[in-house]
Design a protein that fits this description.
globular, alpha+beta, eight-stranded mixed sheet, 551 residues, 21% strand, 33% helix
């Protein structure tokens, strides 16, 4: 029986595009399958902020950030906290990824036309000791053009492969099975779905119009994780993170459902670290949703007062932007699945960025004038739109009215005005002098020592109850599903492994389906800017390895 192509790539997200582009460069033929319409090419990367983890970059050096491979590896290993026998390959992938991020990653992307915003962000700051979780220095490099700007060179390279007759694009093809016909897994079967003109991200028809079967010497699985399937998220929710939330907002569309992981497992693949996952604690209901239950994440500066559902400050060091999963664990042990930011106009105008390409039209559109305009405006337009229309926002001139608005957004009134006033007044007293016992105030002042934060990300210290800084703002924060940190176990050539530790013949995996490499390169936590980069690195590795292995 003849082969339809050298390689079948399942999934046309960033990892699948990177793998296909490398196969094209090697002169291999590819069938690229995806269940969504062609207008959704690029997958979730299109909606992203375009953040990438780079080490000792020119952008860092211009901002006087002293970074190194040794420091980055220390941060990664302290954050991942690998502690399981099955962490062998994830640890090896972590070492390889830090080598990549400190080495050829930037030059490789730059050679394809990718450029970066000059101010480097400081995500996941940790707040523990030197060997614990967090980025010791700013490393979050924003792609000029955000997500669309990052996927563009890979879409271009794949379409060049189409023009050369090396790539066949098969959208609306949903895979339901992998099988062997000559020892190796070489056959992919599934259902052809009804054509759809649904806009990118919106739900498409699931009407089946036919069946398909393709054969190739190798198969690369790049179909993402489980973030759109809340039932599966809850089923895999680890006890260490408390009780799973009853209500969540979705950072990804419903078709990100993890079904391909089960199909690969049925074919003999080993799926590891199912309980490791990455969900955000600063989720908003999108006032202008693209998909059902669409959530947007706040990328906060350090100044907002973070309160639990009853109005109590979160413990040290659970400040905005410091420890995502540490905060998630604390929240889920409070008995509620929402928290609050309390802040003012000065803080929201300086410190609120919203994750996603559609929430950052200046960066996505590569407009220098609009970026300068954002820095000069009182409150950026996308943030103002949430203040005006978002169901999670309360904006009032005085604290009493603010508390009444907060209590109106919950099933029962949980916030006591007098207690909240005492909390804010106590915090405000600490702001008025250069000394403090409030570690969040120390963190704010520390952030402003970094030029990037001082320029565009951290408001000057001031009293929240100062009328000149008003109005007051409260933001209800929801749990936002996002990434699967576990996945198909792979060796350093992206070959999928079996329960016995041997390669599953003919099968490779990359991106979130492979836990971004090895079945869990991040361990328990992420340093941020590592998801897109993980798709690129593992996709590139899978494409190159499959091309080399073919007869």
């Amino acid at each position: 029986m003849a082969y339809d192509a050298d390689v079948i790539v399942i999934g046309a997200g960033l990892a699948g595009l990177a793998a296909t582009a490398e196969l094209v460069d090697a002169g291999r033929t590819v069938v690229l399958l995806d269940q969504e319409p062609e207008q959704s090419m690029g997958g979730q990367a299109f909606w992203s902020f375009g953040g990438l983890f780079l080490v000792d970059s020119p952008e860092q050096r211009r901002l006087r950030i002293r970074d190194s491979h040794a420091l980055a590896l220390q941060d990664w290993m302290g954050t991942a906290a690998f502690d399981r026998p099955e962490d062998h390959w994830p640890r090896r992938w972590a070492e390889a990824y830090v080598d990549f991020a400190a080495g050829e990653k930037r030059a490789w992307l730059h050679g394809q036309g990718v450029r970066f915003f000059p101010v480097v962000g400081w995500a996941e700051r940790g707040g523990y000791d030197a060997t614990g979780h967090g980025n010791s220095v700013p490393r979050f490099h924003i792609t000029w053009g955000t997500g669309p700007g990052l996927i563009e060179p890979f879409v271009r390279r794949v379409r060049e492969g189409v023009a050369r007759g090396l790539v066949r694009l098969r959208f609306r093809h949903r895979v339901t099975g992998l099988s062997r016909s000559a020892g190796a897994v070489d056959t992919v079967t599934g259902e052809v779905l009804k054509p759809s003109d649904a806009e990118r991200g919106r739900a498409s028809s699931r009407t089946v119009t036919g069946a398909f079967e393709f054969r190739a010497q190798a198969v690369i699985v790049t179909t993402g994780g489980i973030g759109g399937n809340h039932d599966l998220v809850r089923a895999n929710w680890p006890e260490r993170l408390g009780s799973p939330p009853e209500r969540m907002v979705s950072g990804v569309p419903a078709h990100v459902d993890g079904k391909m992981l089960g199909i690969a497992e049925q074919a003999g693949a080993r799926l590891i670290n199912r309980d490791r996952m990455w969900h955000y604690t600063e989720g908003l209901h999108n006032w202008n949703p693209v998909w059902h239950n669409h959530g947007i994440r706040i990328l906060p500066g350090p100044s907002s007062l973070w309160l639990d559902a009853r109005g109590r400050r979160l413990p040290v060091p659970l400040f905005p932007g410091f420890d995502t999963l540490g905060t998630l664990e604390h929240i889920m042990r409070t008995g509620y699945d929402h928290t609050w930011f309390v802040l003012d106009r000065k803080i929201i105008g300086k410190e609120f960025a919203l994750s996603g390409s559609e929430q950052n039209p200046d960066l996505t559109g590569k407009s220098v004038r609009d970026v300068i305009g954002r820095a000069r405006t009182d409150v950026p337009g996308p943030v103002r739109a949430f203040m005006d229309h978002g169901v999670d926002f309360v904006v009032e001139k005085d604290l009493g009215a603010l508390v009444r608005g907060m209590n109106a957004l919950t099933e029962e009134p949980l916030i006591d005005e007098a207690a909240l006033r005492r909390e804010i007044v106590a915090r405000d007293r600490e702001i008025l002098h250069p000394f403090t016992k409030d570690l969040q105030v120390t963190a704010i002042r520390g952030a402003r020592r970094f030029l990037g934060d001082r320029l565009i990300r951290t408001a000057a210290p001031h009293r929240i109850l100062d009328p000149k800084a008003g109005p007051l703002i409260a933001v209800r924060l929801n749990i936002l599903t996002r990434k699967t940190l576990g996945g198909l176990e792979t060796d350093l050539s992206s070959r999928v492994l079996t329960e016995g530790g041997d390669p599953l013949p003919g099968v490779y995996a990359a991106g979130e389906a492979a836990g971004f490499g090895g079945g869990g390169v991040h361990g328990y936590r992420s340093l941020e800017g590592t998801f897109l980069g993980g798709c690129l690195f593992s996709g590139r590795t899978a494409g190159r390895a499959a091309a080399e292995a073919l007869g």
